[in-house]
Every structure is written in C-alpha cells, then in structure tokens.
Design brief:
Jelly Rolls, Transcription Regulator spoIIAA, 8% strand, alpha/beta, five-stranded mixed sheet
Length: 1063
C-alpha cells in the first residue's frame, strides 16, 4: 500500500469515526467580557475560574501589600514583593476563537448555547452583559487523564490507527530499503562532513553551500587563510627573509654587479629629492613645534628651546625608523611630534610649576621632562592595546565635531603662542589691559605684527600657487631677506638678540643631548607629577582620536587598499613607547608631510630610513643654529599653523554641520583658548552628549502607524467577516516602534498616544486596541520603560487594551518592561510573539461582537439538553439596548457596522443550510466570486471527496507536487512559508479554500500545510479535476476564474501584511 493511499484511508477512517460520535456543541459568542470601569460590575469569578483568561500569571506572595502601597517607581516597588513573570498570551486559545468564529459564519443553524467564547477581563464594548457561569467541582486526579472519551485527539481508536500507520511505515522502510514517505516528512538538506584531503582530493574544493543557510557564505577566495598563524607566522616569515639576506651576503658568488649598482647607487640617488623635502619639513616642524615644546615665556624654561628641538628630532627619528621598518603599511609614511600636543605639555609644565614653585627650578625641570616621557609611554601603551585587541573601529563612534573643536582650540593656542614668542612676552598671554598696552608699545608692535603679516601673505599666496616647495621656499626666502637687510644696514647680532629679532643662543657647550641632563629622579616632585595625570590622559585621548582619522585619510589619498587601522595602532604604540623610553615625546603619522613625501617620490621604505639618517645628522650638528634663526620665521610658522587650524574648525565647518554641532565647536574653541585645554575636552564631551540627546529626541521612535483597516492578520476569513473588519478596523491602532527607546524618544511616543485619546480624536477614531510592535526595538532605558506603565494607565481610563507584539519576554527589553510592572496581572497587558498573532487576537474580539448581535436577531429556541438558565429575553433586550445605545463611540460604531453587515448578508444563506455538503460550503465560498446559482454548482459536488485530517496531520509540504484543491468545512489549517527572506504563516479557517494556485497551475507547493485542529475538508484531486474538464468544462472554466480571484485576494492580504511589517 502506498503512503498516499494509506493516508487517505487513515483520513476516511477518522471521518467515519467522527460521524459515529455526537459532535461537540459549538460555543456561543454571547458572553461578554468585563465592561468599562464604572459602568458594569466585575465578574465574581476568580482568575483561576475564568477559562478565557489567556495568559496565566504566577501569584505574588505580597500582592496585597503591593496594592496597599502603590508605587510608581520600580526601585520602590521592588521592595514590596516579587514581580510576576511575563508570559506570552495563549495562542492555543486564540486558535480556538478563530475556528469558532469561522464556524459561526459558516452555519446559521449551529447552536449558540454553551460556553462563551474566550475574552479578556479588560473593558468590553461589544454591547452584551456578563453571563454568570456555574463553577463545577474540580475533577479528581484519578480520572483526569482518561475521562475524555469524546475528544478525538486522545481517543484510543485514533491512537491505534496512528500507531498502526507508523508501524506499517517502519516495516516498509526496513523491507524495501526505500523511504516512500518523503512527501509527508521534512526533507533533510544536510550534507555529509567532508573527508580529510588526500591524493585524490581536487585542488579546488567543492564550494557549494547548504541551501538552507542562505546568505551564509564561506571565504570564497580564501583570503584569510594565511593569517591563521598570527604573530608566529609573521615572525617565521621575517626569520626566513633574514636567513636569505645572510646567505646572500656570506656568499659573494651570488652577487651581481649590475644589481649592486642598481640597488646601492641608482635607487638611493633617485630618492634624494624626496629625502631633501622630508628633511626640510622636519626642520620647519622642529622650529615651529619643538622650539615651543616648553613654555619659553617663563624664565625657568626660557633657555630650553634647543632642548625642545632635540627632543623633537629624537621622537621623529624613532617614529621614522619604526614606520619605515615595516611597522606601517605606508612605505613613505613620516612620523613626528604633532603641534596639537604642545598645549597639553604647557598645561603639565605650569601645573608642576604651580605645585613646586619657582624657588626650586631643578625639581620643576626634572618633574616636567619626566612627565613628558611618561605621557609618551602611556600613549604608546594605549595605542598598542587598542591595536592588539582590534579596537580601532571603535574610535570612529566618537563625534567628529568634538575633535574639530579641539583642533580649533589648538589653533587659538598657536596664535596666542605666536604672539608670546614673537613679542617676547613673559609668561602666558593674559587677556587684560596691561597685555594689550604691552603689545602696542613702539618697541613691541613690529615684533609680532610682521610675523602675522608674513603668515597672512603666505595664506593668500597658497590660494593661487600650488606647489609642494612653496612653504619651505617662502620661509627660506624670508630668512635670506632678513639677513640681506642685516648686512645692508650693518646690524650686529648682539643688537638683534637684544631687540628680540633673533633667538638667544643656547649656553656655550650645550650638546644635542643636553635634555638628558635634566632627568634627575632624586629631584622629581612626585606629588606634582601625580597632578599631571589628568592632563596625560587628556593628551592620550586626544591623540587616540587622530590616528583613525589621519590614517584612513592617507590611505584614501594614496590608494592603499590593504589598510588596517589596528596594525597602525600597534605601530604607533611601539614608536611612542620607544620614544618615551628614549626620553622624548609623542609622535604620530603626519598626514600632510607623508603625502608630500610620497608624492615627491619617497614612497619607499629605503627613503624613510634615509630620511631618518639625515635627521640624525641634523640632530648631531647641535643647537648652535638656534642663535641664528630669526624669530619672525618661527613666529610666522606658528601663526600660519594657528590660522589654518582655526579656519578648519570655524570657517570650514560653517554651513556643513548642524547648528548645535557648530555651537559645540565654537564653545570648545573658546573654552580651550580662554580657560583650559582639559576642561575644554570635558565640556566638548558633555556638549556632544547633550547634542546627541537633543537631536535623537527630535527623531521619533515611531517607525510607522497603521489602522486596523490597513494592518490585517494573515487569517483567511469568510467574506462577511472581512467586510465587518474593514469597517471596524479603525478601532485597532498599530504603532511600530524602532531604535533605542530612552527618556528623549519616549516623549514623542507618549504624546502620539495622548493625541489619540483626546476627546475629539477619540470620537472620530474610537480605539479599542492599541498594538505596540517592538520588532525593531534594540534597547530601552528605565525612563522609557516607566513611561509605558503611565501610557497603560491612560489607556485603561479610556477602556483601550494595550497589546505588545514581537517582544522577547526573556530579552533585555522584555526584562526591562517586566521590572517596572507592566506585565503585572492588574495591568491587563497582552503579549504576543509576533504582530500577526496580535492582529488575529484583536480581530477575533471585534468579530465576537458581530455574532453576539446576530444572536439577538435570531428567534429563541429551546435546546435539547439542560443548561444554565439564561437571562430572560426582556431583560436581555433592555441590557443589550443600553449597551448599544450608550454614549460610548466604540459601542455606537460596532452597533452600526454590525447592523449594516447583517442587513446586507443575503437571506439565501439560510436556504443553503438544508443542502447536502459540500454544496452549502461551495455556495458560501463562491458567493462573492461568482454569479452562478446552486443549480450550477450542484454539478461540481460529485468531484469533491470528503477527507478528515486529525490535528497535526501534514496535508502537503514545500516542493510536493499538487495533488488536490481543498475546501475546509471544519477546523483550522496553518500554512507555513519558509523563504530565504524570512518566515510567516497563514491560517485557513472553515469556509475557506486552500491550495488552489499550485493545483490549477500544476506547479510545486510553495508552503507546508498542517492541521491545527481536527479538520474536515472536501478535496478535488487531479483525476476528478481531469474528469470535470472533460464532462463539465463550463464548471471547470468557472472554477479556474474563481481560483484566480482567490489568488488575487490572498496576494493582496500577504502583500499588505509584508509591507506593514516592513514599514
């Protein structure tokens, strides 16, 4: 016996068995839920005695105490008792409701006596009063497992048939060695594990992927296989290269004269222009950065200009060697001290001076230079750890406008430093009247105005002349002109030194390594050193922000595709640690200098090493040259850099950033320039956080809003129900939330809900259900969670039920909402795992009102069995009228739509009930799709076969060939779609067809159909369909047209739901 025939026989046996038993009475929709507060009385039944309560909750041991001491804050409430665990609302009870409601639409002769449909204890507006049910005695435990002879799901005959079928299938498997039941079992797509490679293994492996893992691809090009060894692999590769070089050097026979000439003479000579340009850039930077490394305006640091230059050269040489030896991916990268760090060094120096006092200059100098070196080591350690831990990408999350503000603050500092250096002011530049008078004295005004004019002139020339040699040539020309006038006017060097036109020469005999003599650990003031730690971390923080900006920018400019920020961070860590250990200061990969160096032909590691060697030569030449450098040259350089940075921060961002961000930049610049650098960074971070909150709060957390007239569930309902839901769907309102909910964004959500509950808005749109879909919520803070409890109280005052969908109750958001008591029993908040089930719940509640009114319009009949006494007709009528004729907008709207829907329903449906199935079923399904009468469809009856499927049966699976078109008479079917883009399910209720498109188009099944309950279907199989086309072609043609209309109706519903969930 084939599997298909056995399944059919199994279905027919079930059908016969079902007909042999009295069918259970369908439940009545007459019983209403609790009415609005203050209008109707609550039901006297306890929660445990209400079978329609859909979500069981654990009782709190201190619930009474919690009720006596209400608390709005969770921090207070948490001390009064344990919170109830959050659970999803029962979907099993929801499926029963859906099947019941479909049965009411299918048969008007069905008995409406008995158990009422499930409903929530929340306020009801369907217009029917609560019916008090009799509470039966509890069932004894002994008979609880076997006292259900009328339930086909647990009948012994059904179990025996299922067992016999399973045993028969197993027997066929062992006998024939072939699984003939694949159409009724999940198809396994798993592949065997690949065997170990051997001599028969293909060079190019099988790259096919598992079709069930759509979108998860392996490394197709095997790009990352070589990096599995990590540091060990790189060390081994370096060792192999060293061994190769040693072998070549130790075996002269392997030498080539042409190769030696090319690599030892021609190639280095070709790099000399780039090396000369790089050396010139280093000298200019030393004069502008290194010269002011110490605050020269103070008498203690007045003679340390040459030491600052020497420390600058040491740091530059260390960075150049590290980067050019393979630490950086950029072969021509230039590293040196950055001008932005100078303000932090001055801050540290003045902090130490204030702590120690100017009476002990040796301690001040020893502590200051040690703090510089320690800050370099600290920066290097942070860089190295970030690179080793692969944290380079995290720096990109820091707001860029904060860094721009800091750069502007450095520009302000440089302009002030330029005035100090040029005007030879003692101490810092103070913003007072005395300083202003000193600047405009006759012997001072020319000292700082000439460098300022030189810097402005160069800025103007740079707008018209684009050359890499412009800056260097300009300042060399300025120095040459200066000494031309010196010679022409016969001015002595002593006069120039005294007048402040040339730097004072360093003390006689001071070598380049003089700064090392300043290190004296016995003279260090450790308390003052500790006071500089905040400035050290601020300097480190500021430096950390530069690398992820300069390095990617340089990679884009040079076309470097293999850039790795983490590798550059490690290189920066090594160079800064070594620089600190050599007693020098921080260094970074300088974007501008590196780009100029590589553009001039220095994109070679040998060029970088040659530049480091030439810089060593300049360092060894000593600081004698300092006594011949015109101050206007250094001052103009400092002014030039300061003006460029201020222009970048204040002019370049005007109109390009948000007004709040620009205000933040301006405040940071002013704070750093007038007050303090560390304070400026802290102010910038605070303003960035404030700006983020303000701007984020302006963006609503509401992704989309839909009325229930647009947002519909995927339940295939009868036409009369669809018509009713189209009119009453505005009582359902859906809010789809997205993003992170915090105290700033939740305000917009609460205001939107308050607007819905206002008197005028509520009259036009009488809400009954508010659905909050949280599928796109990725986090929530305590303020937002508390706001939901406040929103629920507002909704309860209006009698609106709050429903939460697409929420993981055990996740972060679910736990946060549970902690504030939103899911407590008294809150009456329903939780559903997805939006489709939530919409189904709301639609079922609305449809219950339709059939309660239909019950009132039906003549009363006396049942053939004893039941609880019902409310007398005159009392029921009066209560019913009071509910529907009340002032509630929801009741009025439900009453009007229910009346019009029932009035328009054709009176022929009563006549159909006397016909034999499946004719009444076909007439109801095809009523709105065809104008044919019962005489026409009577000819189609003989082609349909009655088939019964027990709960859990699989009618067909994805990929199966279509074997039938189904009309569902009883029960409920679930259609599961598992696509690469996602999964969703449809429900087919009694009175609806299914499987029409693949069957009539002869294409494979696109979904899996499962019986959610015991189902009675009428099936048109392929053989009978062929007979219908031969014997009754007009019926077959009409059925094809109807199938197209059904497909269009179904596609509209699915498309609407997909667009709703995607919006």
């Amino acid at each position: 016996m084939s599997t298909t025939s056995s399944s059919k026989q199994h279905a027919r046996h079930s059908s016969n068995f079902s007909k042999g038993r009295p069918a259970p009475m369908p439940s009545s929709p007459l019983k209403a839920s609790h009415s609005d507060q203050g209008i109707e009385e609550s039901s006297p039944l306890a929660v445990s005695d209400r079978p329609w309560i859909e979500r069981p909750r654990a009782s709190s041991t201190s619930s009474q105490a919690a009720e006596k001491t209400p608390a709005r804050s969770f921090y207070v409430r948490s001390f009064h008792g344990q919170l109830d665990p959050a659970q999803y609302s029962s979907s099993a009870g929801l499926r029963d409701q859906t099947a019941e409601l479909a049965a009411f639409a299918l048969s008007e002769t069905a008995s409406h006596l008995g158990t009422s449909p499930p409903s929530s204890s929340a306020a009801s507006d369907d217009g029917y009063p609560e019916v008090i049910e009799e509470v039966s005695e509890p069932v004894t435990p002994a008979g609880s497992d076997h006292d259900h002879p009328g339930d086909p799901a647990v009948s012994e005959l059904t179990a025996m048939i299922q067992n016999s079928i399973s045993q028969e299938e197993e027997h066929q498997q062992h006998t024939n060695g072939t699984d003939k039941t694949m159409s009724h079992r999940p198809v396994s797509l798993s592949r065997p594990e690949p065997s170990q490679p051997d001599e028969h293994t293909a060079l190019i492996g099988d790259r096919r992927t598992d079709p069930t893992k759509y979108g998860l691809y392996p490394d197709i090009e095997r790009q990352y296989g070589a990096d599995k060894g990590g540091i060990i692999h790189k060390c081994r590769a370096s060792a192999r290269r060293v061994r190769s070089c040693v072998y070549t050097l130790s075996h002269p026979k392997t030498w080539s004269a042409r190769a030696i000439y090319r690599e030892a003479i021609v190639h280095p000579v070709s790099l000399l222009p780039a090396v000369f340009l790089g050396l010139l850039l280093n000298i200019l930077d030393a004069l502008s950065y290194g010269m002011i490394l110490f605050p020269l305006g103070n008498e203690i640091f007045d003679g340390l200009g040459s030491d600052g230059i020497a420390m600058f050269y040491v740091s530059t040489i260390v960075a150049q060697v590290v980067y050019s030896s393979g630490g950086s991916i950029f072969r021509g990268g230039i590293g040196s001290e950055m001008i932005e760090v100078v303000p932090f060094f001055h801050k540290m120096a003045f902090t130490i001076l204030q702590k120690v006092g100017d009476q002990n200059p040796k301690a001040v100098l020893a502590t200051t230079i040690l703090s510089f070196a320690i800050s370099s080591v600290l920066t290097g350690v942070v860089f190295f750890l970030m690179g080793a831990c692969k944290l380079g990408s995290l720096i990109g999350f820091f707001p860029r406008h904060i860094l721009i503000g800091c750069i502007g603050g450095v520009g302000w500092f440089l302009v002030a430093t330029g005035i100090e250096v040029s005007a030879r002011l003692p101490g810092n530049l103070e913003y007072n009247l005395n300083t202003l008078k000193q600047l405009f004295r006759s012997d001072t005004i020319a000292l700082w105005t000439i460098p300022l004019l030189l810097a402005i002139t160069l800025l103007i020339v740079q707008r018209f002349v684009k050359s890499n040699l412009l800056v260097g040539g300009y300042f060399i020309s300025v120095a040459a002109i200066f000494y031309f006038f010196k010679s022409a006017l016969d001015i002595s060097m002593d006069t120039l030194h005294t007048g402040g036109w040339v730097f004072d020469p360093p003390p006689a005999g001071n070598p380049w390594y003089h700064f090392y003599t300043l290190y004296d650990f016995n003279a260090v003031h450790w308390g003052a050193l500790a006071d500089t730690i905040p400035a050290m971390f601020a300097l480190t923080f500021f430096g950390v922000l530069h690398v992820p900006i300069n390095v990617p920018a340089l990679g884009i400019s040079t076309g470097e595709d293999n850039l790795n920020v983490d590798r550059e961070l490690v290189a920066h860590g090594v160079s800064n640690c070594l620089s600190g250990l050599f007693g020098s200061v921080q260094n970074y990969l300088v974007y501008t200098n590196s780009l100029l160096f590589m553009d001039s032909g220095g994109n070679d590691r040998l060029a970088g090493l040659m530049l480091a060697g030439c810089t060593v030569g300049i360092l060894l030449a000593g600081p004698v040259i300092i006594g011949y450098i015109p101050i206007m040259v250094v001052g103009a350089l400092i002014f030039l850099l300061g003006i460029e940075l201020l222009e970048e921060a204040l002019v370049g961002t005007w109109g390009k950033v948000h007004k709040l961000e620009y205000a933040t930049i301006l405040i940071i610049v002013v704070t750093m320039g007038v007050w303090d650098f560390v304070v400026g960074i802290l102010v910038g971070i605070l303003l960035a956080a404030l700006s983020f909150v303000v701007q984020t709060s302006r963006r609503t957390a509401i992704r989309a809003t839909y009325s229930g007239q647009v947002a519909r569930s995927l339940v295939r309902r009868p036409p009369v129900q669809l018509k009713f839901l189209r009119e009453t769907g505005k009582q359902i309102f859906l809010l789809r939330l997205a993003g992170y909910l915090f105290f700033g964004t939740i305000v917009g959500v609460e205001n939107r809900i308050r607007a819905l509950l206002e008197e005028n808005a509520f009259r036009d749109r009488p809400l009954r259900f508010l659905i909050l879909d949280m599928a796109q919520i990725n986090g929530i803070d305590f303020s937002a969670a508390e706001a939901f409890t406040r929103i629920n109280r507002l909704l309860q005052k209006r009698g609106v039920e709050l429903i939460v969908s697409s929420l993981d109750v055990d996740g972060e958001v679910g736990q946060a909402l549970r902690n504030v008591g939103l899911f407590a029993a008294e809150s009456h908040v329903q939780i559903f795992p997805d939006l489709n089930v939530a919409l189904e719940h709301c639609e079922n509640r609305l449809l219950t009102a339709l059939y309660r009114q239909q019950e009132q319009r039906r003549p009363r009949r006396i049942g053939g069995h004893l039941d609880m006494p019902r409310t007398r007709p005159q009392e029921l009528s009066s209560s019913y009228k009071a509910e529907f004729m009340g002032s509630s907008p929801r009741r009025n709207h439900l009453h009007q739509v229910a009346q019009s829907t029932l009035d328009e329903e054709t009176s022929t449906s009563a006549k159909w009930q006397s016909f034999k199935q499946p004719l009444p079923l076909m007439l109801q399904i095809f009523a709105d799709l065809s104008e044919k009468t019962e005489d026409f469809w009577y000819r189609a009856m003989k082609y349909f076969e009655r088939v019964v499927y027990p709960k859990g049966s699989v009618l067909f699976k994805v990929g199966d060939l279509p074997d039938g078109f189904y009309l569902l008479e009883e029960g409920i079917l679930r259609c599961d779609y598992d696509l690469p883009q996602g999964r969703y399910s449809e429900l087919i209720v009694s009175g609806r067809p299914c499987g029409e498109l693949p069957f009539f188009s002869q294409t494979s099944r696109t979904a899996t159909m499962i019986a959610e309950k015991d189902c009675v279907t009428w099936k048109l199989d392929a053989k009978r369909w062929h007979d219908m086309q031969t014997r009754d072609p007009d019926v077959a043609q009409e059925l094809l047209v109807i199938s197209l209309k059904l497909t269009k109706e179904r596609m509209d519903a699915v498309t609407s739901y997909v667009l709703t969930t995607a919006g």
